[in-house]
Amino acid sequence: MTKIDKTDLDNIKLIIKETKINGVAKIKIKKNDYEIEITSNEFSGNNVSIKKFEKNTEVKEVDNGNEVVNEENIVKSPMVGVAYLSADPNSQPYVKVGQHVKAGDTLLLIEAMKTFNEIKAPRSGIIKKIVTLNSQPVEYGDTLIIFE
């Protein structure tokens, strides 16, 4: 069972602060068998709810804000590292929103232990959303890119 530790609580406080600054109304975070949902409203303040999932529950669709995305349309991080959207700071990004990619095309790089790993498209399709930011740390299972 996943336990919410002090680091998680500090991160939740930071996320609440950021949602206020950036005007984000709702955010959901899933960590193993827990889902944390933070909603913010300038009149009612912040609300935080934590739900525990049963181990046998399998999610086929992911709630991405106001829309539901099929799990097969999500490219997730296969490792912990730092995501890079281009080969170097002066290069164009590998992919852009609306671009058609073929299976096997490079989508981005993840640097782990001083090694750059190419993350390739698992199938052909159109890039709907690039979730990760350039030079952003990513964890195993984080959503990187969403296909249409």
Descriptive tags:
single chain; 148 residues; OB fold (Dihydrolipoamide Acetyltransferase, E2P); 2 domains; 4-stranded antiparallel beta sheet; 1 helix; globular
Return the domain count: 2
Poorly predicted runs of 5 or more residues: 49-64
Q: Helix and strand succession?
A: HEEEEEEEEEEEEE
The coarse overall form would be: globular
The CATH topology name of the largest domain reads: OB fold (Dihydrolipoamide Acetyltransferase, E2P)
Portion of residues in helices?
A: 10-25%
The overall pLDDT, averaged over residues, is 76
- Discrete helix count: 1
Structural overview:
With 148 residues, the chain is mainly beta. The chain folds into 2 domains: 1-58, no CATH class; 61-148, Beta Barrel (OB fold (Dihydrolipoamide Acetyltransferase, E2P)). It has one helix at 6-22; strands at residues 26-31, 34-41, 45-52, 61-64, 67-70, 74-76, 81-84, 100-101, 106-112, 115-120, 125-130, 136-138, 143-147. A 4-stranded antiparallel β-sheet has the order 6-13-11-8, with no helix packed on it. It has a 4-stranded antiparallel β-sheet with strand order 10-9-7-12, with no helix packed on it. The chain has a 3-stranded antiparallel β-sheet with strand order 1-2-3, with helices on one face. It starts with 5 loop residues before the first helix and ends with a strand.
